[in-house]
């Protein structure tokens, strides 16, 4: 979509400026030669977003993980800053259930 292309170009250009308001965290795709492809997390350069991007990168959220379980759906939603009500609704819509144990683990 033209909007996505323009937004990515603008983010990349902004990331080159100092001081930048945009951060880009790249990660290789599990099991693939990094020379053949990477994924990128584009985020605000302001805390807590760089830290959240590193956490997403640590378990391959963008590269190789489909957030299919209620645990990962909640974890990704919380890291991305979604309202808890919306995360709960998303998990429920996908047929999952958030237990007290999952909620405590993500918190």
Explain what this protein looks like in three dimensions:
- It is a single chain.
- The protein is of the alpha+beta class and 107 residues long.
- The protein is built from 5 helices and 2 strands; from the N terminus they run αββαααα.
- The chain has helices at 2-16, 49-58, 70-79, 84-93, 100-106; strands spanning 22-28, 38-44.
- Strands 1-2 form a two-stranded antiparallel ribbon.
- Helix 3 packs antiparallel against helix 4 (84-93) and helix 3 (70-79) runs parallel beside helix 5 (100-106).
- The chain is globular.
- The model has no long low-confidence stretch (mean pLDDT 84).
Keyword list:
single chain, about 110 residues, alpha+beta, two-stranded antiparallel ribbon, 5 helices, 2 strands
Q: Distance between termini?
A: 36 Å
Q: Give the topology string: H per helix, E per strand.
A: HEEHHHH
| H/I helix tally | 5
Would you identify the regions where 5 or more consecutive residues have pLDDT less than 50? Answer: none
Q: Give the helix/strand class.
A: alpha+beta
Write down how many β-strands occur, each being a DSSP E stretch of 2 or more residues: 2
Largest sheet: 2 strands, antiparallel
Proportion of strand residues: 5-15%
What fraction, in percent, of the residue positions are helical?
Answer: 40-55%
**Computed CA radius of gyration, to the nearest angstrom:** 16 Å
Average pLDDT score:
84
Shape: globular
Strand numbers in spatial order across the main sheet: 1-2
């Amino acid at each position: 979509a033209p909007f996505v292309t323009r937004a990515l170009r603008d983010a990349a250009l902004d990331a080159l400026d100092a001081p930048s308001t945009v951060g880009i965290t790249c990660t290789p795709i599990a099991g693939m030669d990094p020379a053949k492809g990477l994924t990128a997390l584009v985020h605000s350069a302001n805390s807590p977003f760089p830290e959240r991007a590193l956490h997403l990168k640590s378990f391959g959220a963008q590269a190789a993980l489909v957030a299919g379980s209620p645990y990962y759906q909640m974890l990704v939603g919380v890291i991305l800053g979604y309202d808890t009500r919306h995360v709960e609704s998303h998990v429920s819509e996908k047929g999952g259930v958030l237990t007290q144990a999952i909620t405590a683990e993500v918190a």
